[in-house]
Please model this.
Amino acid sequence: MEIDQQQTPSSNRETDFCYTLLNDFITDLHVEHNASPHTQRNYRIDIESYLDWAQRAAIDPLHPDHHQIRSYLTELVEAQYSHRTINRHLSSLRSYFRWAQIQGEVALNPFDAVHSLKQSKTLPHRIPPEDIASILSVYGPCDKQGQMRDQTPVEMRNQALLELLYACGARISEAAALSVGDLDFAQKQVHLFGKGQKERIVPIHDMAIESLDGYINFGRPKLYQADRSGEALFLSTRGNRMGTVAMRKMFNATLTAAHVNAHYTPHDMRHSFASDLLDGGADLRSVQEMLGHRSLSTTQIYTHISTSRLSSVHHQSHPRG
Model:
């Protein structure tokens, strides 16, 4: 059937141009802002979702009116996206149009006038200390009964990674990006590179140092491949840098072996790190620095789950405690 050219969406040319702009925008994120591949991918996914919808709806994607934007948001809601995900889409589009405005491609940012959806506040998921102990015993040099056992190179690696996650609150992407030189054994600290490649230095305790030292000296050399490994800290069995997917798969297998909640995630180790620090008496500003949060308000959510510390302070401080 021949397509009537008069019925072809008038926004096709504009949509094609927007995809060209999108490629330039992603390049700018990479070159000028040092955005991680994960961040670049999320921006692309969110913006392409909007451009695809604009083409289906036959609207000019560069100049949507408020009603059209509401129609797009309605589609996301009907597709059962969470408010958090929808707000991420809005944030990506605001950034994209702000960049296009700076480039002189649009006069106004149509998403500046769109408010984010209200989100229900959810507390971070903290792993109980007894489950942390079980997780950290799966690959350790001693079993839960305290009996010594021989560790394979992979077990040394897994133990070092798990100890590191709990010792410094690293994101899984930050752990995957680590190189051997990012560890400072003399000062007992690790250099982490967070969002936007912002560097922070976090202390790590003796047990994590011991696991990392054992892995680097005895485990990593057996996984190392001269043509593949480079300076990557955590290596796969083939000698490649261990990626986040492989790390998550290892973590899930660890949960099964430890007989703990299968719904825990590597990020919950970060939440537990922060909560346990606050329970131990650390001040909020220090925890903020170690987590790499830009805003103190982001860190403050952990105060809501550190109830044991608050209870202790109340008991010690109140006249009728």
Observations:
- Confidence is low (pLDDT under 50) at residues 1-11.
- The chain has 13 helices and three strands.
- The CA atoms of residues 19 and 48 lie 8 Å apart.
